Amino acid sequence: MDRRHFLATVGATAAVGTAGCGSSDSDEMPFRVGDATFERRQGGGYESVSVRGVNLGMAKPGRFPGEAAITRKEYQRWLGAIGEIASTIRTYTIHPPAFYRALAAYNDDADEPLLLLQGTWVPTAELLEAGDATAVSETVDEELRRTVDVIHGETTLEERPGHAAGQYDADVSDSTLGFLFGIEWPPEVVTETNERAGKGFDGTYLRTDGAAPFEEWLAGRMETLVSHEMDAYDQQRPLSFVNWVTADPLDHPYEPFVNEDTVSIDPDTISPTPEFTAGMLASYHVYPYYPDALNETPEYVEYTDHRGEPNNYAGYLNDLVDATEHPVLVAEFGVPSSRGIAHKNVHGRHQGRHTEQEQGEIVAAMFEDIEHADTAGGILFSWQNEWFKRTWNLASRSVPGRRPHWSNVETPEQRFGLLAFDPVERPPLDGSGDWSDARTVQPADTSRPAASKTLTKLAITHDFEGLRYRLSLGDSASVDWQDITVMLTVGLTGRTTALPLGVGADAQADFVVHLAGPENSRLLVDSRYDAFAREFGGVADLPLDSYRDGSAGFVPVRETINRGYTVPANGKEVPFDAVETGILRYGNGNPAASDYDSLTDVHVDRSQNVIEGRLPWILLNVADPSTKQRLATEWEAGLDAVPFDSLTVSALTFEPDDDGRAVTSEGATNVTHQIPGLNGSTVQSVDYSWESWNRPEYQERYKQSYDVLREHWNSQ
To answer: Which residues contact 548 (CB under 8 A, 6 or more apart)?
Structure first.
């Protein structure tokens, strides 16, 4: 049913009953679902509450979410910052008691309380193993009852692996806006559950009509939750199950991947009985770039938003809201400020490759889209960066059990947060940092070419994000890219190979950093060690024999953003696609600077004649810097991780010709200067190593996106 058309026909007063709030008992509810939004009891009536929320996960650096390691002080600090920009906080599961105590304390002092949307997690691995969701009903029901007891501060949970535990004595029910049950349901589980014979569901508080067996299962679980809260506390509050685009009730004929539109979970098949006066709504996780139907459906791509601009995200939201009788809550939305990218959006709201400033601006615009779609509000994903996450196009290149211990700036899933965790005392990429603790190397050759081509010092250091370097040029030099090209080499495998760009020398180098100015700088990799070719070379149609034997030489560093597909509705062929993620961006990498660019790879300080840069670990095939594991040397080993002790680094300069290659010299090589030295035609290298770690030292920093949202949301 088109809910908005229906509401316009019957009127708002009559429509209250469609949301389950029509009985006289609704007057006793602190919160309820109205015709389009949540409503809060205020005086003798109710006022609308539009959700402007932030999702809060359970992870922090060095810890998996199941360790429940966030402290009371951290929660207090985070809630204070969240309260400055948002009205609502959402959790996915039961947090430690410290969270609820911190929330209660915050709300005791706040002019406006932070409202809570409490989630109940369903164990995904157990669900996938079972196949049929009914096999985990007892486990899920028990967790739902725990959830209710937790928000009322009336339980003690015993230690369980992967779960929070302790004495829950903080009653936050007065500020609990509602319950959001579940996860992004795997299509294969929905399909297998739906193979059961449907029986219908007619409970005290929820009933189904025309529901598939999986929808009946959802209704049964939500009945458990409402029944327990009524029996134990004589209360009820708004309720929803989590859903996502992949399982929405709409048909997507332009979706190229069958598994992304195989199943439908329709919230309209579940409705409140007159006994459930708090009401039900529909909740969806909606991002602008996934699944591909959002980029390929003409109705979405050509949709004109409230700004008069084409906007596929607004187009989809408009379709979704019209497809259900329930008010719609966008329970997750956002874009990441990662260096890497995993999926493109037709209108530029990509999954990654945004600066922190751009992240904030896009999120603010998406929230406007959510509001203009007549929804119940939106909940930003997420509050903090989450290091344990992985993204499909890079997941195979890191060690799964070690991901929380280092910061993968390349992976989009780790960079959705408004709160960043930065290395302590790292030198910022702006020329002002303290490099006194870095490994410092000076040229062994006492002879000097022209000052503009002389390297006087190489400093090397690292942090949990990557390798950092600082190159100092001759005292009277001025970095002139028409006159000089700088090359930094990094080796992990111990192999010596010929360097590219006609320098006429070799080195222990698996990677080459080619620094030739803002438009022409990039990271290159020895084709034998190219992780992209090993994983995606076949589908990318690369000449794999020349990659295996190294005759392809040094090649660009790439990452996949699309495997290729055919759009069913019109036969459109979309080829495999990858981006050259090794292109290096010049800028100011100091977060305190007014011109800060969070995607900065290289900074040139002409006043000091220095070049500083960062190299993300995963782009150097380091699968875990915290225990020093890298991708295996031999091509046949694929993406297996092996230990290593150290890496090697060298630096050189050469004079470029009009094509950027080294000008031929009369010497043994075309190198004009090098650090540490030259042995015949081999550029010598220095070793660099570090101690392994388990608990990374970090400092919190609010991203520029936080400031953008604070200004934007507080001005409304």
So the answer is: 528, 635
